[in-house]
């Protein structure tokens, strides 16, 4: 016999505003990971790498 599952449970209390802010920060930090070239640092020169970061930041800001 299967045990009886109690549903619905009482939800956990959490701060919705804090959760929204945390979610925005997590999404902001996850966006550069979409840019594989930046995440893996394929560029040899520091100025080329910095240029790629600037382009990615501009595109992320634009979108």
Distance between the termini: 54 Å
Share in helix: 55-70%
Uncertain regions spanning at least 5 consecutive residues: none
Q: What is the strand tally?
A: 0
Structural class: mainly alpha
Strand content: under 5%
TL;DR of this structure?
By secondary structure, this protein is mostly helical.
Question: What does this protein structure show overall?
Answer:
- The protein has 3 helices and no strands.
- By secondary structure, the chain is mainly α.
- It has one domain.
- The longest helix is centred in the last third of the chain and has 17 residues.
What are its keywords?
mainly alpha; 63 residues; 3 helices; single chain
Blueprint of the fold:
Blueprint: H1 16-30, H2 36-40, H3 46-62
């Amino acid at each position: 016999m299967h045990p009886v599952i109690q549903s619905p449970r009482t939800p956990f209390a959490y701060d919705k505003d804090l959760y929204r802010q945390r979610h925005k920060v997590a999404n902001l930090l996850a966006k550069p990971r979409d840019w594989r070239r930046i995440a893996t640092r394929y560029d040899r020169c520091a100025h080329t790498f910095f240029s790629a970061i600037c382009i990615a930041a501009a595109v992320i800001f634009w979108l």
